[in-house]
Structure formats: structure tokens, C-alpha cells
Amino acid sequence: MTGAVLAAGLEGNVTAIGYGLAAIGPGIGIGIIFGQGVNAIARQPELTGVIRTNMMLGFVLTEALALIGLVAPFIFKSI
Fold it and tell me: TM segments (predicted)?
């Protein structure tokens, strides 16, 4: 088995492992965002709307990193 054939066979597995590693960071980040958001709402219930808005903004920005991690291997694969 040549190196090129072996590399072609492993390419899909490496992409899956790469995305799995790329999803760890955003997953931890989202957990921290919502955990701290719940603590903030428990401490200051009168600011629930503001805190919830900031939590959702943080969630969206953090989730964007996971989506970039999902799309990036396919973009770089075609180059």
C-alpha cells in the first residue's frame, strides 16, 4: 500500500477528528456562558432581560466558532 493510498483512506477520519477537537472549545465556552448567566440572574433578577440578551449574544458568537470548525476542513480540502 503506497503512502498516497493510505493518506487518501485516512483523510475522512482526520477531518472527523479535527472537527471533534474543534467542537470541544465552543462546547466548553457555551457551558461557561450559560453557567455564569444563571449565576448572574440568581444574583440580580431585575436584570434578567439584559443578562439573557448578553448570554444569547455570547452563545451565537461561540457557536459560530464551531460552525467555522465544521466548514473549514471542507474549504481547505478543495484547495
Answer: 16-35, 56-76
